[in-house]
Each structure stands twice: as structure tokens, then as C-alpha cells.
Amino acid sequence: MPRPLLIRGGHVLFPDGTSRIADVLLRDGRIAGIGDAVGAAAAVGDEEIIDAGDQLVMPGLVDTHRHMWLGSLSASSSDVTLFAYARQVNEELGDGFTAEDVYAGVLWGAVQAINAGVTTVADWAHNLGSDADIDANLRALHDSGIRARLYFGGKASSSGDYSRYQAQTRRLQAAHAARQHNNGRIALGLALRGPSMATPAENAEEFGLARELGLPISLHAGMAGLPGAVDQLGHQGLLGPDVNYVHANEFTEQEWRQVAESGGSVSATPSVDMTMGLGTHPAVGAALASGVPVGLGADTVAYGPSDLFTQMRLALAAERSRANAEPIARGEMPAELRHGHLAMLDLATRGGARVLGFADQVGEIAVGRQADLITLDLSTPHLDSFDNPVLAAFLGAGPRDVDTVIVGGRILKRRGTLTRGLLEKARQEVSRSRARIRERSL
């Protein structure tokens, strides 16, 4: 187990949204104590001390939808719609990926996430054509130290080969069940094509496999120009609490009712949703209004930013823009503003944990939860506040402000620098991979 840690004297964000200066004790990979004098009350002298003075201590961020293999293709696409993007990135660049490229992309993607304060990620893996690719993806997640749910999606460009996907899924589950060294950090799920990309018969087969194996499901749905996904699943009797819908921008009121009644969840990716034209607004407000659990995701760093601070702020701006449109159209000043910074922060922590099925493990600072925490350096001018460090962090924080990242009690970033040689190793891997990708594209 990792060495006990005492995070001393930071502004601790509590589950009710308030913050106060307190100590947080971490033992055996979990939060063992919180309070003004927890150090004096619980310490036995073997803790490593982290001085969190002038820092905000908060739960690690939870990203509910990210294609991790795309880490090596950061900022490789822009100004194109979904299908052009898929041709440029998934096919022209991704189809040539070897297992070594998968490992490098996922490891670099994990570095991007960890550096930005993301401690848990939903890895929607849809560029895994071979068993070696699958093993490389799992190994990269493990080596990075991040907590993850790997949604296995095979290889998008060969997704019609269902028998191969079924065999790979069964092998993956068996291999994962036999692997004990990740201490439960990595869980499995299935990334399915869903009605937008597959026939009803294919959906029935793929959903049947997921449920036979007891694996949660994630699928893209509710994107502009691809309507009716939830209705189709409803007609087939495939809705359920194990289904996560990514995007959901264009769900009808009936579809929202069906998702709510069936216990499904939603992942909103505000930056990609709005800039790629997947919908006019992210699904955050509609999900909250319908009582559907919703979390945030960066989606693809090939097209958008890698941090959730950006997604939180954009989600709030977009939701208020949507809600304010009606009174503004009447020439009126809105009488009230819907939602607030704490609601959006909750989506990136507890909300994300609920979406991924980790609500009893991560997402808030509470005794007994996994020791997944981050600290933000509040000493910089742009994070100064009159009396509200949480609001200051929401309004201005970014990856460079993340001082410390801890997952399962292990320090992955300290004093603004990734630990264990992770950055150097990942940079070497991604440099070699990018050279191979460029050579293939000539």
C-alpha cells in the first residue's frame, strides 16, 4: 500500500460546496480522516506531509467520456463536422495504429488527463483491432496510475465483424478478471455503436453480450442529424440503468422521459458538442431538468481541450445562454440565472462518479472514499479571491494550476510536476509513435 499522507492546512472543498482550512489524512489508499486537528489526532509519525497552505484541496476530477488513444493526435483536426473528422482522424490516421501506437496514445492521453487534475476517466476505446492493441491499452492505463473505466469498442472502421468483437470482449473480460495488480483501479464496460451506427439486429446482439457479461454500456446518441436512438432502443426493450448516452444534445422530451424512467445516464462534452456542431447546446440543462445523472467529458483532444475546467465553464455559459434566450428575445433582462458554479463543479466530480458507477468510491472528500484528490495553487494572481477560493478556481483554473494529483493514495503529480518519470516515459513513447504515424501518412 502507498505510504500514508497528511495533506495539511489547505482550503478543503466539502461535499456541501463549502470550504474551510483543514487537514486530510490518507491511509491504505483511502481517506482516513478530515478535520482541523486530524493530524494531531490520527498521525502516528509515519505520514508524508503535503503542505497545502494557500491551496484548494478538492476531489479529483472525473471525465466521463474521452477517447484516450487519441492522446498522440492532439490538435490534429479542426473546423470540420463529425464525419469529416472521423475520416481524418479515426480512419486516415487511426487505422494504421500498431499496438505500440495504442500504448503511446493512451499513455500520453493519461498524462494529459492527470496533468489537468483528472483522476478518473472513461476511456471510450474504439481503435483496438487486435488482441495486442487491447493489451496495450490496458497496460497504458495501468502504467499511468489513473483510475479508469475502459469501455471496449473494438475498431470503429471494422465494427461490422461482430463475431470478432464478441471473441475479443470475452477474452478481455477473462484477462481482466485474472489481473490483480491494478488494485481495482481499472473497470470494464462496452462501447457500443448504438442505433445511430448499427442495425436493430446488431444492437440486440451487442446489448445481449454486454448484459450476459454484466458490463455497463456506453454509446453515442442524440447528435444532430442522427435522431431517434433512444426511441429505437425503447422499441427493442433495450433501455436500462446500465446505459450511458454520450452527447444527447438532440433528445426529444419523450426520449428524456425514457432515459429518466429507465435509469440511464448522460455524458456531455460541451466543447466538442458545440464546436463540432453535434447540437446547439450541451445536454447538461436538459439532463438536470429530467433528473438524469450527467457528467462531463473532454471527448477528443484531437479536436478540443484536455481539461475539465474548460468544460465546466463552457457548460455553465451554454446552459445560461439557452435558459436566457427567451426573455432576451422579448427584450427583457433575465429575472434569474439558472444553475451555478457549484452545480457545474459537481458534474465534474460527484456527477461523473455517479455516471461511471463509482459513486461510492470517488467524487467527494469523505472518510472511507478512495484517496483520489487534487490541490490547486491559489497563490497566482488569476486565482486570487476576495473570500471564495472555490469560485476563484472555477472561474480561472487550468492544468498549470494543478499542484498535486493523488490517485489511490499515490502521488502522480507534485509541485506541478508529474512523478515517477511518467512524463519523460510518455513523451518518449509518443515521440516515437508520432514519427511512425507521419511516416505512414507520407
Commentary on this structure:
By secondary structure, the protein is α/β, with parallel strands linked by helices. The chain has a domain at 61-304 and 347-356: TIM Barrel (Alpha-Beta Barrel), CATH 3.20.20. Helix content is 39%, strand content 21%. It is built from 14 helices and 17 strands. The strands form two sheets. Strands 1, 2, 3, 4, 5, 14, 15, 16 and 17 form a nine-stranded mixed β-sheet that branches. A hairpin with a 5-residue loop joins β1 and β2. The longest helix has 22 residues, at 308-329. The mean pLDDT is 94.
CA-based shape: globular
User: Major sheet, described briefly?
Assistant: 9 strands, mixed
- Low-confidence regions: none
Percent of residues in helices: 25-40%
The secondary structure category is alpha/beta
* Reported CATH architecture of the domain at 61-304 and 347-356: Alpha-Beta Barrel
Task: Please count the beta strands (DSSP E, at least 2 residues each).
Answer: 17
Average residue-wise pLDDT: 94
Radius of gyration: 21 Å
CATH C-level of the domain at 61-304 and 347-356: Alpha Beta
Question: Could you give me the name of the CATH homologous superfamily of the domain at 61-304 and 347-356?
Answer: Metal-dependent hydrolases
Query: Looking at CATH, which topology of the domain at 61-304 and 347-356 would you report?
Result: TIM Barrel
* Intertermini distance: 48 Å
Determine the strand fraction and express it as a percent band.
15-25%
Provide a count of the helices.
Answer: 14
Record keyword descriptors for this entry.
TIM Barrel; globular; 8-stranded parallel beta sheet; 21% strand; 9-stranded mixed beta sheet; alpha/beta; 39% helix; 17 strands; 442 residues
